[in-house]
Design a protein that fits this description.
The structure holds two protein chains of two kinds. By secondary structure, chain A is an alpha+beta fold. Chain A folds into two domains: 3-46 and 252-376, no CATH class; 63-230, no CATH class. Chain A has helices at residues 3-14, 16-46, 49-53, 78-83, 149-152, 190-197, 217-225, 236-250, 253-282, 284-293, 297-330, 341-367; strands at residues 58-61, 74-75, 88-102, 108-116, 128-131, 141-145, 160-163, 166-174, 185-189, 203-204, 206-211, 232-235. In chain A, helix 2 packs antiparallel against helix 9 (253-282). In chain A, 45% of the residues are buried. The model of chain A has no long low-confidence stretch (mean pLDDT 90). Chain B has helices spanning 48-55, 78-88, 104-113, 119-132, 148-160, 178-193, 245-250, and strands at 4-15, 22-33, 37-41, 63-68, 71-72, 89-92, 166-170, 198-203, 214-219, 222-224. Chain B has a six-stranded mixed β-sheet. In chain B, strands 2-1-4-5 form a four-stranded antiparallel β-sheet, with helices on one face. Chain B has seven helices and ten strands. The longest helix of chain B is centred in the C-terminal third of the chain and has 16 residues, at 178-193. By secondary structure, chain B is α/β, with parallel strands linked by helices. In chain B, 31% of the residues lie in helices and 24% in strands. Classes of the chains: A alpha+beta, B alpha/beta. Chains A and B meet through helix 1 and helix 10 of A and helix 1, helix 2 and helix 3 of B.
Chain lengths: 377, 251
């Protein structure tokens, strides 16, 4: 280990209380940023979960639709027009919308109905743990996620409830299909979905377009645009970005999360700056001695920067451990915190930048050291 | 190479301004020579420390010149002066100024580290320097576990480890008892006589006079007690080395 690094680490660890205070500041800051950004990514992931799980190449949606949950409708006649175009394999109407679920106890709770032609498989429930999708085509059958059992008053397959006055029966159970809106998703057949959401028979929420294997996507998109009038055609990626953009930035949720993250950075920087400055002040005599011995300012900066880096490394390691725990604890929640490798790398870089920036105050103080002061003490 | 390590000509220094202005130095001419231990003595406020700071490239004179190992210090900025110190000067401070969190060996090694001398060679040189001051066995000890005398010996090891041309010591024995003071002075005398370094010791302590090759008295910012017509204080005949401090005190 280099002597500057040794000196830096000894300066830090010499005062245990101050070191702990510094660590608390850094860990608080990094965990706060990590959670806020993890929520941001988790939210961004959750708001597109339906789009991500749809087995489709293109989405035909009402004009200016903002997100998957948008209640606007399009003319179902477009289905036949699109189906006849070259390169189009299937066109599946999707019927979605909010509805009311009446528990056996009589209590009401809102649900979000997702209905499609289940034989086609374009928008089926996934992570099925009990029952089967085919059963949804029989009568008034529904698939629910078992994380909503309490909310829906469901105990398992065979449980019954009422949607818009129609008795429904649970025939399939999924695991982990959570809604960020906290309103449970209910998967049903398209025909039933019309009744549950009040969607007219000549309308649909979206059309899911699958292409033939040899079809050129751009050409088909252009062809569809020529047929759909006011409606829009989007690729899955475009629809995902639009949904994410609406929920994260259109609603202000993303800005709030970023503001929280920024607060974390500011708090962390201030705490680290304060403790580093106070540590430097306590060691001014040593730095003055170094200067008197002929060390360059750069040498002293190295010691201070090393102190900042040690703070960053230890603080980040602790914060990462806490972050991993938080991720684990929220994995099954309605809004899981998602921490990607990129986020970890960015947070590591941010921690280093934060700590090194914090060292500037200490460095400005050291620049003013008069080496002759050593002779006065 | 010339025997003159440092040469000061016409040094004056004014400190403060207006009514509070003090003439700390009023025209000092002085040369320090290789292999010579010089004492700089004088009452408090006489300008000893100011002169030491100027000779040690920590303060610039108001007028006059200082030439250190052939390099004029005038015009050098703070970093330039630091480089001159790094290249040519070793310091021994009254309060030792060791780094409390480092071991004795690391304290010594620090003087090499700031000169970019690192690794095994630096560790070896630090050990050798500690060996020279008789503290090789305390290499791994922290300063707070050392006596005052031992701490000052570590400080001397730190001052000489990079083999500077000149060692400047500020009251190195003032906090030490007789035996430790004697040991410290013996080490500084060794630096001058065996290693050929110029050693300047600022002191009030009359017990260390026998170790001096030359004594400069300073009062009111001027060198005194030099025969008329001589530009500099005379050199003393070489003192009997290692004379017991108790004997000196009784003279």
């Amino acid at each position: 280990m280099s002597l500057t690094l040794t000196l830096a680490s000894r300066n830090l660890f010499h005062d245990t209380l101050r070191f702990v205070a510094t660590m608390v500041g850094i860990v608080f800051s990094v965990v706060l940023v990590m959670v806020q950004m993890g929520l941001f990514f988790g939210f961004g992931h959750m708001v597109t979960t339906m789009i991500d799980h749809a087995a489709t190449d293109l989405w035909v949606v009402p004009k200016n639709v903002k997100c998957f949950e948008d209640p606007s409708l399009i003319d179902l006649k477009l289905r036949n027009k699109i189906a006849t175009l070259d390169g189009v394999a299937t066109v599946v109407p999707l019927v979605i919308g909010f509805s009311d679920w009446r528990l056996e106890s009589g209590e009401m709770t809102p649900v979000f109905v997702v209905g499609s032609d289940l034989r086609d498989g374009a928008m089926q429930p996934w992570n099925l743990v009990e029952g089967n999708v085919q059963a949804l085509s029989q009568g008034f059958s529904v698939a629910v996620d078992r994380s909503y059992f309490d909310r829906l008053g469901v105990t398992g397959i065979g449980s019954q409830a009422e949607i818009r006055g129609k008795k429904v029966k649970v025939v399939a159970l999924t695991d982990g299909i959570r809604s960020f809106t906290t309103t449970p998703y209910i998967f049903v057949d398209a025909k039933n979905a019309r009744g549950f959401t009040g969607t007219p028979g000549d309308r649909a929420s979206d059309l899911l377009v699958r292409l033939k294997p040899d079809a050129d996507r751009g050409t088909v998109v252009q062809a569809i645009r020529g047929q759909i009038g006011d409606a829009e055609v989007l690729t899955t990626d475009e629809f995902r970005k639009r949904s994410r953009s609406f929920w994260l930035f259109g609603t202000g949720a993303g800005a709030a999360l970023f503001a929280g993250a920024l607060l974390g950075v500011i708090v962390g920087t201030v705490i680290v700056a304060q403790t580093l400055y106070s540590s430097t002040k306590d060691h001014l005599n040593e730095f003055a001695t170094l200067r008197a011995m002929g060390s360059s300012n750069g040498y002293i900066y190295h010691v201070i920067i090393y102190q900042a880096l040690i703070n960053a490394v230890v603080g980040f390691a602790i914060a990462s451990g806490i972050g991993a725990l938080v991720v684990q604890m929220t994995a099954k929640s309605a809004l899981p915190i998602v921490i990607t490798n990129w986020l970890v790398a960015a947070l590591a870089a941010l921690t280093v930048v934060m700590c090194v920036t914090s060292a500037l105050g200490a460095i400005f103080r050291v620049v003013r050291i008069d080496p002759a002061a050593v002779f006065m003490r | 190479m010339s025997d003159v390590i440092i040469e000061a000509r016409g040094l004056t220094k004014r400190l403060g301004s207006g009514a509070g202005e003090v003439h700390a130095l009023r025209g000092i001419d002085l040369s320090l020579h290789r292999g010579e231990l010089t004492l700089l003595m004088g009452p408090s406020g006489s300008g000893k420390t100011t002169l030491l700071l100027i000779l040690g490239c920590m303060l610039t004179p108001t007028t006059g010149t200082v030439t250190l190992c052939g390099t004029a210090t005038s015009g050098a900025d703070k970093e330039g002066l630091a480089k001159l110190r790094r290249d040519h000067v070793g310091f021994v401070f009254q309060s030792y100024h060791l780094f409390p969190t480092l071991t004795a060996a690391q304290n010594v090694q620090l003087a090499l580290d700031i000169r970019h001398e690192r690794g095994r060679r630096a560790r070896k040189r630090a050990r050798e320097a500690l060996d020279r001051v008789g503290l090789a066995h305390k290499a791994g000890t922290r300063p707070n576990e050392l006596s005052g005398g031992e701490q000052q010996r570590v400080a001397i090891a730190r001052a000489i480890v990079a083999n500077p041309s000149i060692v400047l010591a500020d009251e190195p024995t003032s906090s030490l008892d007789g035996d430790n003071g004697k040991t410290v002075m013996r080490l500084l005398a060794d630096a001058a006589h065996e290693r050929g370094q110029a050693v300047l010791v600022v002191t009030h302590d009359p017990r260390i006079v026998p170790f001096a090759d030359r004594i400069i008295h300073i009062e009111d910012g001027r060198i005194v007690e030099q025969p008329s017509g001589e530009a500099e204080p005379p050199r003393l005949p070489k003192a009997a080395p290692f004379e017991p401090l108790s004997a000196v005190g009784s003279q």
